[in-house]
TrEMBL record:
Sequence segments annotated as region (Disordered): 1-31
Family the UniProt entry places it in: Belongs to the HNH nuclease family.
Any Pfam family hit: HNH
Name under which the protein is recorded: Putative HNH nuclease YajD
SMART domains per UniProt: HNHc (SM00507)
Record's keyword terms, sorted: Endonuclease, Hydrolase, Nuclease
Protein's UniProt keywords contain Amino-acid biosynthesis: no
Superkingdom assignment: Bacteria
GO molecular function terms noted in the UniProt entry: endonuclease activity
Coiled coil (UniProt feature): none
UniProt keyword annotation of Heme present: no
Polar residues: bias regions: 14-29
The species this protein was found in: Pseudomonas paracarnis
Residues covered by the HNH nuclease domain: 37-92
Length: 107
């Protein structure tokens, strides 16, 4: 019987990068001052979670979501018809489903 051969430790070690280095900072992704101002104005006008409302619940919206992911498209990013206010749990669920988080397949 042959002894098991292992790759050198350096080859087995996975280098983890901070999230900011993996996907850029929020400002680098377009969520800077202009976005914060637009977000605040939208949530003032649309204070309830759109998903909770669809399910007959009333929850305050805390996050501004892009209904259709913009994937870096500036026109879609700033299209207010593509925005909806969501509570944080609804936004987290939607984002995880789209991005493949929490073991979900990436859409």
């Amino acid at each position: 019987m042959r002894p098991k051969r292992h790759a050198p430790a350096a080859a087995r070690t996975i280098q983890h990068q901070p999230v900011e280095q993996q996907r850029g900072t929020s400002t680098q992704r377009g969520y800077g001052y202009r976005w914060q101002q637009a977000r605040a104005g939208y949530l003032r006008k649309h204070p309830l979670c759109a998903e909770c409302e669809r399910q007959g619940r009333v929850e305050p919206a805390t996050d501004l979501d892009h209904v259709k992911p913009h994937c870096g498209d500036d026109v879609l990013f700033w299209d207010r018809d593509n925005w909806q206010g969501l509570c944080h749990p609804c936004h987290s669920r939607k984002t995880a489903a789209e991005d493949g988080g929490f073991g979900n397949a990436r859409r």
